[in-house]
């Protein structure tokens, strides 16, 4: 048997040399968020406890629990010792529809398609009809890169916490319309979609940029709200590319700093 030398490394000095501002850096927040519709529990997700009305609305829309923001009567947020409760009040016809599609799910921060009861349900994609998404203009490579380069300074000015995922929506001049953050990338997108839907700012002539990799579940959420162009800062999965093509979503991703169009 070989003799191994065990060396004990003293890290105290290294930590002590860190700048004071880094020692007191803001910490990422995460909490259990329970979402109910007309008093019936729909999901318990782990997410950052900010912009919860946007999160609940975006999640409900992107998961197909509700079909339009016009179906929502009110959204009420309650805090609890162990988490947060978000109650969405909707029209009676929506409640009847939900009874036909009953699911209760618990999802971690990295969960995008939790609680679905079959492979077919997880793989299904919302197919846009011709009258739902008409012709739209794609952003140029220059505009996409300009939006990406502007994001760090925008987040810094907003007091963004390092480590959160960000989802932002830009117009075709690289002007940012809205952005939301979350410890989970799916939740960040849900918050953005909820914000845009509530303010009626979601248009076909614009694009969403997400500071994460791209997977099938992000495409599925984008397709349900007729998002025409999605940009991510990391390479997509093969399934995400196929899903984007089927859903007629233009998918751009940065790979090793280079922008590539995949769909």
Please name the CATH topology of the largest domain. Answer: Cytidine Deaminase, domain 2
Indicate the CATH class of the largest domain. Answer: Alpha Beta
Inertia-based shape = globular
What name goes with the CATH superfamily of the largest domain? Cytidine Deaminase, domain 2
CATH architecture grouping of the largest domain: 3-Layer(aba) Sandwich
Number of strands: 11
Tally of discrete structural domains: 2
Radius of gyration, in Å, reads: 20 Å
State the low-pLDDT regions, or none.
4-9
Question: For the report, how would you describe the main beta sheet?
Answer: 6 strands, mixed
Order of helices and strands: HHEEHEEHEHHEEHEHEHEE
**SS content category:** alpha/beta
Distance between the termini: 56 Å
Helicity level, as a percent range? 25-40%
Total helices: the number is 9
Percentage beta strand: 25-35%
